[in-house]
Every structure is written in structure tokens, then in C-alpha cells.
Amino acid sequence: MQMKVKEVAELVGISVRTLHHYDDIGLLKPDTTESGYRIYSQKDLESLQQILFFKQLGFPLKKIKAIINSPSFDREEAFQIQRKMLLEERARLDHMIATIDKTIQHMKGAIYMSDLEKFEGFDFSKNPYEQEARERWGDEAVDESNNKINKMSNDEQKALGEEFDQIYRDLAAIRHQAPDSDEAQAGIKVWYDYLNKIGNYSLEAFKGLGQMYVDDERFTKNIDKYGDGLAEFMRDAMAVYADRNNFD
Questions:
Q1: Which of 30, 31, 136, 237 is the most exposed place for a label (fewest CB within 10 A)?
Q2: Would you say residue 64 lies in a domain?
Q3: Which residues form the HTH merR-type domain (predicted)?
Q4: 198 domain-assigned
Q5: HSE on the CB side for 216, CA within 13 Å?
Q6: Mind listing the pLDDT tens digit for each residue in 84-104?
Q7: Do 63 and 148 share a domain, yes or no?
């Protein structure tokens, strides 16, 4: 049975624009009629299911394309790997839900909860964007960042996390200003300095990172939690900062 692009979009719950994008980048290319309409086969739907599992697990589209187009790609093996990863994610989420439940009971005075128990389930040792960073800017920069963080004490890492959160809140408060304004540039400099405390970001890498905030919907979703439009504001402000300070 063949389906048109709108029918597939409605069946899966994604936009027609997303399917067009997958076609444009060669990730999922259906057949087309003489009139130019995209027609999806059962095999295309199977491929789309696999793509969306990878995407749900945080794989970038470029990586997904490389995986499914590999001559050694095996669908069943991929499903087994995806299942294992989803089970691990479920276990992590269950742990965090349990921590929330205990926290609520602690707030009501029903149980006592130690400070250590309040942070059970959080795992900052895995960075879902690390592989993408390695591909874009090389192993050395990422390894340097990881080494710096790993050498910090728990208190130092906690302080670093609080500083991260505050920077985003401060930037969200000024996101409606022009990206090239003095206040916006002062705020984005704080972000640049913060990143270089834990890594070694060139101005070019800093500008590229800002672009990824908008190109990668995972980044956009997380950043815009602090304020709608923050990701775009940061991208523009980071680009201005990089261009103004690049004296090469």
C-alpha cells in the first residue's frame, strides 16, 4: 500500500515539512510520481520508524543517515541496540520519578530525605551531544572539557551548574534586545568566558555552536525552556561577538 506525504505525516504525527527535509538531505527518499508527488511504500515506513527511534534516542540526522546507509546495517540488530538504550533510559527516568515522589513526601513531613538522596537519578557523566561535538570540533577540545570537569570536586561541579543556569536566566531576561546591543554583547561574553572555563572554544567554534542551537531542535527545545526565542537570540549574539572579536 502506498501513501502520500500528508497521509504519512498524519499517521506518524510529524510535519510534512519534516518529511520533505528528510527527502532533501537523502535520509528518506520515497518514489515520486510523474507529477512530482512523493509516494511512500511499506519499506519507506519501516525506514521511517527506524529513523525516529534513533532520533528519539538523541542521534543527529547526519549520524542516522550514515548508520542506515551503511552496507553492514542490520535492522534487527539496530532494534536490539535501540531497545537496550531505551530500557536504560527508562530505568534512569524511573529512578528520577522515585526521587520526585520521595521529595514530595519529604516536603509533607511524611519521611526524612537526606541531601544525597535528593539528587539520586541525576547522571551528568553522559553528554548526549558529545559525539556531535567531537565530529564538529575534534576530540581534543571535548577531552579537555571533560578532563577539567572530572578534576573538579562535587561542590565545584554543583557551583558550575548553578552558574550555567544563572547565565541562561540572565540571557533570557534580555533576549528581546538587539543581539548587537551593548547589554546583549556583555551577556554573551559571560557565556563565552564560561565555556572557556571548561573547554577551549575558538571564536569560530563559538559561532558554530550558536548556529547549532537553532539547527538542532534538541538544543532549541532545551534552551527555549528559559524563554521563547532564546536560542535564536543567542545564535545571533554569539555570531556578532565572534565577528567583532576576530582580529585575524
A1: 31
A2: yes
A3: 1-70
A4: yes
A5: 21
A6: 888 888 888 888 888 888 888
A7: no
Provide the b/e sequence for 151-169 (b: ≥16 CB within 10 Å): eeeeeeeeebeeeeeebbe
Phi, psi of 3, deg, nearest 5: -130, 150
Do both 167 and 106 map to the same domain?
Answer: no
Q: How many domains does the chain have?
A: 3
Give the angle subtended at the CA of 220 by the CAs of 216 and 223, to the nearest 5°: 140
Question: Cell digits for 72?
Answer: 553492514
What digits encode the pLDDT tens for the residues 168-227?
A: 999 999 999 999 999 999 999 999 998 888 777 788 888 888 888 888 887 888 889 899
| CA–CA distance, 41 with 91 (Å, rounded to integer) | 35
The residue segments making up the domain with residue 10 are: 3-68
DSSP code per residue over 64-112: HHHHHTSTT--HHHHHHHHHHHHHHHHHHHHHHHHHHHHHHHHHTTSS-
DSSP code at position 117: G
